[in-house]
Amino acid sequence: MSMFGGGGFQAQQSVNPQNIAMAEQELDMVTDLFNRIVDSCYTKCISTEYQQNDLSQGESVCIDRCVAKFFDVNAKVGEKMQQMGGAQAPQ
Amino acid sequence: MDFQRYNQAEQAQIAQMIEHKQMKDFLRLYSNLVQRCFNDCVTDFTTKSVTGKEEACVNKCADKFLKHSERVGARFGELSQQMMPPGSQ
């Protein structure tokens, strides 16, 4: 005998599986990009001598530049791929 | 990442998915770290247990990797924010 009726507000909203799949793909893409940057920049910047627990000044600067460059390369390759796609489409 | 454009029910399901993936990511990080520090630090097989020197190396290796990924995360956040300022969608 509720004044508010049986159905809650949330029950009226339907889940579109396509939206969930889209969100999942976006999440996976970003996670994958991040993990690849961590791997690449570790290989390029961190000395495996392991002299200290902290990042050295040089390593820190290297990481900052490495991440920025990875983003740059990512964008440049993306542009290139888009051009390729655009050139192929009109035929 | 901005999931505001989805309705409440969808957002709830996405939140659940994120939680599930975080667990998976944590396990991945763990095994990755073990492998990395083992490869970089353990090279001497004249003893059966990890030597003091190796252990010190593993400690530094693990600390360094976690600090590294923290710093990458900070820069990653800043750069993605720059590329896609909030409210641009």
TrEMBL record, chain A:
Location within or outside the cell: Mitochondrion inner membrane
GO molecular function: metal ion binding
Pfam families: zf-Tim10_DDP (PF02953)
Domain Tim10-like: 20-83
GO CC term, one of those recorded: mitochondrial inner membrane
Main location: mitochondrion
Membrane topology designation: Peripheral membrane protein
One of the protein's GO biological processes: protein transport
Top-rank taxon, per record: Eukaryota
Keywords, ordered alphabetically: Chaperone, Disulfide bond, Membrane, Metal-binding, Mitochondrion, Mitochondrion inner membrane, Protein transport, Translocation, Transport, Zinc
InterPro entries: Tim10-like (IPR004217), Tim10-like_dom_sf (IPR035427)
Family according to the record: Belongs to the small Tim family.
Function: Mitochondrial intermembrane chaperone that participates in the import and insertion of some multi-pass transmembrane proteins into the mitochondrial inner membrane. Also required for the transfer of beta-barrel precursors from the TOM complex to the sorting and assembly machinery (SAM complex) of the outer membrane. Acts as a chaperone-like protein that protects the hydrophobic precursors from aggregation and guide them through the mitochondrial intermembrane space.
Domain notes: The twin CX3C motif contains 4 conserved Cys residues that form 2 disulfide bonds in the mitochondrial intermembrane space.
Subunit structure: Heterohexamer.
Stated name of the protein: Mitochondrial import inner membrane translocase subunit
UniProtKB/TrEMBL annotation, chain B:
Regions annotated as coiled coil: none
Keyword Ligase among record annotations: no
Compartments in which it is found: Mitochondrion inner membrane
Topological category with respect to the lipid bilayer: Peripheral membrane protein
GO cellular component labels: mitochondrial inner membrane
Domain Tim10-like: 16-77
Transmembrane spans: none
Pfam families, per database record: zf-Tim10_DDP (PF02953)
Gene3D superfamilies named in the record: Mitochondrial import inner membrane translocase subunit tim13 like domains
One BP annotation, GO: protein transport
UniProt keyword list: Chaperone, Disulfide bond, Membrane, Metal-binding, Mitochondrion, Mitochondrion inner membrane, Protein transport, Translocation, Transport, Zinc
GO molecular function, one term: metal ion binding
SUPFAM superfamilies reported for this sequence: Tim10-like
Domain of life: Eukaryota
PANTHER family: MITOCHONDRIAL IMPORT INNER MEMBRANE TRANSLOCASE SUBUNIT TIM9B
Family note: Belongs to the small Tim family.
Role of this protein: Mitochondrial intermembrane chaperone that participates in the import and insertion of some multi-pass transmembrane proteins into the mitochondrial inner membrane. Also required for the transfer of beta-barrel precursors from the TOM complex to the sorting and assembly machinery (SAM complex) of the outer membrane. Acts as a chaperone-like protein that protects the hydrophobic precursors from aggregation and guide them through the mitochondrial intermembrane space.
Domain comment in the entry: The twin CX3C motif contains 4 conserved Cys residues that form 2 disulfide bonds in the mitochondrial intermembrane space.
Oligomeric form and interacting partners: Heterohexamer.
Protein name as it appears in the record: Mitochondrial import inner membrane translocase subunit
Organism: Mortierella isabellina
